[in-house]
Fold these 2 entries.
Entry 1:
Amino acid sequence: MGRILMKGNEAIGEAAIRAGCLNYFAYPITPQSEIAEYLSWRMPEVGGVFLQGESEVAVGYMVFGAAGCGARVFTTSSSPGISLMSEAISYIAGAQCPAVFVNIMRGGPGLGGILPSQADYFQATKGGGHGDYRLLVMAPAGVQEAVEMVMKAFPLAEKYRNPVMILGDGLIGQMMEPVEFPDELKSEPSNKDDWATNGMETRKSSRRNLVKSLFLDSEQLEAHNRVLKAKYDRMRREEVRYESYNLDADYKALIVSYGTMSRVCRTAIDILKAEGFEVGMVRPQTLFPFPERAIEEAVRRKSCKVAVSIEMSMGQMVEDVERSVRGRCPVEWFGKAGGDVPIPEEIIDVIKSFVKELI
Amino acid sequence: MGRILMKGNEAIGEAAIRAGCLNYFAYPITPQSEIAEYLSWRMPEVGGVFLQGESEVAVGYMVFGAAGCGARVFTTSSSPGISLMSEAISYIAGAQCPAVFVNIMRGGPGLGGILPSQADYFQATKGGGHGDYRLLVMAPAGVQEAVEMVMKAFPLAEKYRNPVMILGDGLIGQMMEPVEFPDELKSEPSNKDDWATNGMETRKSSRRNLVKSLFLDSEQLEAHNRVLKAKYDRMRREEVRYESYNLDADYKALIVSYGTMSRVCRTAIDILKAEGFEVGMVRPQTLFPFPERAIEEAVRRKSCKVAVSIEMSMGQMVEDVERSVRGRCPVEWFGKAGGDVPIPEEIIDVIKSFVKELI
Amino acid sequence: MGRILMKGNEAIGEAAIRAGCLNYFAYPITPQSEIAEYLSWRMPEVGGVFLQGESEVAVGYMVFGAAGCGARVFTTSSSPGISLMSEAISYIAGAQCPAVFVNIMRGGPGLGGILPSQADYFQATKGGGHGDYRLLVMAPAGVQEAVEMVMKAFPLAEKYRNPVMILGDGLIGQMMEPVEFPDELKSEPSNKDDWATNGMETRKSSRRNLVKSLFLDSEQLEAHNRVLKAKYDRMRREEVRYESYNLDADYKALIVSYGTMSRVCRTAIDILKAEGFEVGMVRPQTLFPFPERAIEEAVRRKSCKVAVSIEMSMGQMVEDVERSVRGRCPVEWFGKAGGDVPIPEEIIDVIKSFVKELI
Amino acid sequence: MGRILMKGNEAIGEAAIRAGCLNYFAYPITPQSEIAEYLSWRMPEVGGVFLQGESEVAVGYMVFGAAGCGARVFTTSSSPGISLMSEAISYIAGAQCPAVFVNIMRGGPGLGGILPSQADYFQATKGGGHGDYRLLVMAPAGVQEAVEMVMKAFPLAEKYRNPVMILGDGLIGQMMEPVEFPDELKSEPSNKDDWATNGMETRKSSRRNLVKSLFLDSEQLEAHNRVLKAKYDRMRREEVRYESYNLDADYKALIVSYGTMSRVCRTAIDILKAEGFEVGMVRPQTLFPFPERAIEEAVRRKSCKVAVSIEMSMGQMVEDVERSVRGRCPVEWFGKAGGDVPIPEEIIDVIKSFVKELI
């Protein structure tokens, strides 16, 4: 099958199906309702289930239920809807179940607006829910990458028995781009007999599996949290993904940006390069684990005077950039949070002004 | 009135009343249900209202409703309950309403356990909900400080028209300590006529106030988020609170810890001092804004070889310590997350081992 | 205090207050929302509570909660809202708690319309909820009577420890009539210490009261149901209320009608009388207990050829008329169920045609 | 397929499947949870859906949703659960949608007990919900009849576009009896294209169907209610079902009883007959429409001195018996309502005492 032109939201839905996911629970919310619309007819076509919950709170627990049975399951929502799932996400992570969440972010806080935003960076990477857990968070910069990330998300969720979140924005969901789907995945997680509560009769072994996040005994809860921490540390070692841009040049500034925002930055870098003004970029593809080392190394280049976090939020990723830079150069932030995506000219002006200040 | 011996949870409830708060909405959850129990009879006694919601989701919006009318309002819960309030908290912050939240943290994630924990540091300081907002977060180390923080929380919430969160743990809630209550506050926020929807007839002016977080126009949402950011930047300048301990000595290590955890650290520091091994401590009293500068300055002391974040969580505050230290010395983490509070001997061993490694 | 002109809905609200009821829980629904509006400011004025529930299901259980504590409590709703309270009503009756319900009926079934109707006769008199219980049901024909019935409803509910329902229609709620309020009631049910769960400390005795409807043992449940039946039989003996009209004449037909419908019938009877055509009427003021004996006696008059149930419903009260008449004469039904109240001319034509048929 | 031994609850579930019903929504409640358990695995086996709702309120509206799309749908519950569905049932009847409800009654009111009961007779036959509507109500006396009634219920619901209710009790649900299933039904209601909202593309015609119960205009609502009344009158003419027992004898008393209660009465009649004491019985198989004429005719027999309504409730069906008897002989009631089914000896004593009184 070759490339086809698809809207981002529909491509995300189709990607889940190609990933062998037959369980989709959701509650509609702009700007991602097309995913639910698409899967409302596509899921039955492949023998899968789409169920609209009574609320996002209910959806979160439907996801938990299916995940606990070892079924491939995902949901999609937008910012306020994800907040309503916070408790369930913490439970799923605590019970070590695999599940895939897609957040097509809208402007916030509160009702906010329905235009593109990256304002849920903190919620996704630092845990909107309570307790010590982490989501593996991926941020696509286009429709093709969104498809690939969704399809990778399921095996990653199963490898770590942990929720994976795809963090997109309204542009990713609404734009049309040519897409080529990777090979389909097998429909069953490979290891689920070891932990999932899928009924005694369907398992070869005679184990009784128990899915839970309750550990009233302090030693058990401590041990449980050490198991979780070991997983998150392993993610930090094995799952960091990022893309470098123009890092061979002697750049004066390093941009860190992700998602659709990074595409504008790339254009700005190209324009600046034509002017003889070199700027490099690290684009995190995983937001947790964060490419700390790549950024730390990038700012070691002598020519680099400043690291700039460019985000469609009021200063969230910049904190991870600060941690990564470890004081090697100043860290600046530039962002917007109303729904208008900054244009290349704004980026160019900002970068120049930051560099100028430092000279 | 002199000092009286009170249980932490009850003292927190009484403090809200002394702060002139007559509206308390809550849903019971261990280990803070005594607050609801206490206020169930105490609120009516002072002409106030305690209403148990149908769920924490409902409670969050009851708080929003009262706050939007300009009434002093607070709620208390524990970790999973706070997750369920995430959406409402984002709405309240987005609509710029004052409200006070108390989170007596329990072990997590998921159901976890009911023993003391500090595992909701991220949720409180980085925003459990969606969108660009911040809570002003205070962490008491004892019952007296809890009382003072609760009583300060109301005027701070009103000054910034922003939710304030008190982050305690089960020990704070359950222990009994002598308490002296500060002078009572006036029962009415001073500025509420300017923004609250408290009914046309009761206001002197003829303004129509509107409480909302919806801004569909991108320029309006952008402007709104800049207003919010300006508030959070002002908090960073004006509201940082912390306590230093043994910073006059030539300490080899700097501990950063908060809440009840810091009391154990203090004992460990005293024991080590008796041995001639100097260790300093910065105890953040506000977690947002975080005492970044105080920590940065503290690690500049030549003798200081390492900064250690000691927390009853699996590595959350350590990220803010890393940001604050800005690469000036190594940053280490030590923590537990099962409900057992580390004892001084553990702290002593850990600090010594970190320092030893570095020599 | 003399007579004042009041809208029915507001007069009903005021009557509850004069009856010493300080607890009102409700969810707004046309055509009775003015009761909630009125009590939203009037209840606080007298130190009472108005709480809007999250739904009528919630309201039903708020009523149960307050009733179980021995507090005077009432709620008001309209047809679909009462359906949602069906389970709670059965629980309240089963647990023998006093409470007052007002149903300002709208057209049905389903969403129906918002115009006057008497279509919930069956629901009110035969029990919308499950199990063997009865409501004491009163049906006012005007605003003054609505006020009196509401004020009688509380002591009756307390006498029988059983829910009482006032069944009105949109006309009762919307029309304005001069009202004179009876003397106020004491604010406390007299017998509540014997059964209500109002807290050990506030009672003189040391009894532990238990409010429940669960009796898993068949003998206990049987005994419980016999107690309930004895109460309903006592109501049948002691609480039947009705009004006779023109029963001294040698009427050819007996009308049975209630509520606002009966006012139109009365006009029709007056017109017919002027023509020399005598028609009598029994107007049930209590629908349960139903004035069976009064009707049976009325149809014994030799001149009486037919009994006609005239109701704004499609044939509900007619069944109770049939039971009462016991075959002594034919029983006919006339009704409308769209919201238009029949006019006297329609009644006249109908009565004449029924009588004509029989001659 | 021959006879198989099955538990009543499971047989009811299987019957729905044989009737071509592929949609089952329910919330578990004793004493009928086995139906949900059975269908939880059986529905997927035949390509159907079992969905457990969040509450019975939700289930009622799931049923409405599926019914409105023209799908065969049913639900099962027990007394309090049916109360929670009252509003939805009224909506479904008002919108003229076919659906099948099974109520395996438990003792009431309120929580009551879990033993057999017939205490929801009024709720089923007089409408638990609001407004002018009727359910077609069938009451099986054994497992085989339950199966047949469930299978007839679907085409009847579709013929009348009205909810049908099967009223059983815990004995029907729990007992095992040999069952033979009738031929399977086609899986699709025949007339659904005329009214169901099943999507434009799947219909041959180009009609836009609208499923609703809202008629704000009084003339439209009146016309709508006349259409409904005409359906209920047609049911009264065409759908009355009952069984006679010993009506050829010169019986001194006529028993009216239904469901499992009637089986005990039959035994009592046999014992009495052996003594030379003749008693007849009419067993309503449909409770609405009620076999009024059959009963009226039966009491015309000269030997008949009394009609006795024997029911596991405190006097509900007796009212319909009174209406049917039309004063031709005395009507008595005997019943229990605790969960213990009366034994034949009790029936015998009661009948004898009633007859004795009259002589």
Entry 2:
Amino acid sequence: MTDLPFTFTLPMPEVIPSNYDNHIERRLSDLRGQCLDQEAYAAMLAQENSLVYEVYEIKRPEIAGEILMGVSIVHPGKVGREFYMTKGHFHTVINTAELYYCLRGEGFMVMETPEGDTDVQPLSSGRVLYVPPRWAHRSVCTSRQEDLVTFFAYPANAGHDYGTIEQLGFRKLVVDGSRGPEIIDNPRYQEQAAREP
Amino acid sequence: MTDLPFTFTLPMPEVIPSNYDNHIERRLSDLRGQCLDQEAYAAMLAQENSLVYEVYEIKRPEIAGEILMGVSIVHPGKVGREFYMTKGHFHTVINTAELYYCLRGEGFMVMETPEGDTDVQPLSSGRVLYVPPRWAHRSVCTSRQEDLVTFFAYPANAGHDYGTIEQLGFRKLVVDGSRGPEIIDNPRYQEQAAREP
């Protein structure tokens, strides 16, 4: 990490940054409890703990005024009918936004607020998505062959709250339907909510 | 301006965003006092107040946690030996960074801190530049035919201080040399400094 200006390239079609500080690999086991079809999940995991997505991060001081950047790569695949996706998270400092610039692939960003507003936006090459403050976000790859690759940036003091989503799930899911990707209500989210007093 | 998530495309090769809130045009007259060759500047301006660069901005609340984004297009051209460039600025909230993702073209980002550190980084398609907090920045198009196009993003509370650069200039300039672009010390900056007590 330097205090000087720095550059890196996002070489197409590889899109792995020429310089990065951290490479995160998330596998099926990291999505434990998150998938719609828990039987399909258990059967797949018993076979192989497959790579679902990867993140390349550029390190900066995690303070307001700095910006954290990186590249997210969600691989094609499904657990039952549900497309491969990231864990998804709120920002710990909830009043912080995030932008995504889609470099390659096809998919969706699934989003929701603590108050229960939901939104699902399509992602494709050349499309910029602004996730306003307060919106949890999860990216989903719906291509059968191609990675969903996004460049992301957010205020460096944002932090990650994965716990809320791990506990409740997202209200909406993206599954493979008879005519392509379908956005459905998450029945497991409703079950969870129904358990509350 | 919406509170909901939103997307827009940066369609190649046009690179003008599909949605934007503000289109800024900066012409020769906006660079008054900034160019190395003041005679060439006056002669050009007498002929035509040419378009030097354009910015397409996406509006957001100008508060910490939000991110401002847009596209900057610096056209090819020169004033004397000096390549077309943006006015350049510090951020008013000086501890705020900015990122640039070069979509097309060739050029440089000229940068300096209030303490006199300088840096000049090349820009070309696919290259991401991180301008850390405290660094003033100006983009320069060095192609003879092609626009320098960058996607930029910065903390929405940053603000713009153009006045410091208008008064002092940048310490470094990019001019057309015998073997391509050359980075030189700005003699007009030194003159200005010499006028101080």
